[in-house]
Amino acid sequence: MLYQLSSCGYPTELVLILSTSRTLSNWPESVLPESRATTQDTTTRLGGWLFRHRTSLPLPAALAILTLRIGEAPPSALLVGTGVAITVFGELIRLWGVHHIGAISRTRSERLGPLVASGPFARLRNPLYVGNIALWVGFALTARLVWLAPVILVLLALEYHAIVRWEETLLESRLGNAYRDYAARVPRWVPVLFNRGERKERREERRDEDLPEKGRSAFSWRATLFSERGTFVAMALGYLLLWTKARF
Question: Distance (Å, rounded) from C-alpha 107 to C-alpha 118?
Answer without folding.
Answer: 20
